[in-house]
UniProtKB/TrEMBL annotation:
One of its GO terms (cellular component) is EMC complex. It is found in: Endomembrane system. Belongs to the membrane magnesium transporter (TC 1.A.67) family. The keyword NAD does not apply. It is a multi-pass membrane protein. Keywords: Membrane, Transmembrane, Transmembrane helix. Its main location: membrane. One of its GO terms (biological process) is protein folding in endoplasmic reticulum. The chain crosses the membrane at residues 34-53. This is Uncharacterized protein. It comes from the Eukaryota.
Amino acid sequence: MSFLSKLVTLFEATPPTNTRCSSAARASPSPHDIIVETLAAVVVVSVGLVLGAEKLKPISWRDWAGEIERDGGARNPYLSLEERYGFWDIRAKRKEFAEWMRGQDMVAKQ
């Protein structure tokens, strides 16, 4: 069935459903046993998901980032940010600054 025919079927089915629901007065709210059963099922499923999950491993961000730097390439999620125009390579700038400071010390000592 194409999307258009499904959409037409949906709109054709909506008015009878709407009139049936609005004309029929609800005699009583949902039975208590259904509510209790639903809540119990939600609790059981939630507890099962939590207890069935694998233990989380601690992440050392420094180790992870070092591994990514060594491997490089497509595994680096920040590669697009690092390659953009105007991005500073902090390590290179720090090295450049240290060399400049050593040069200033040499000039001052002479």
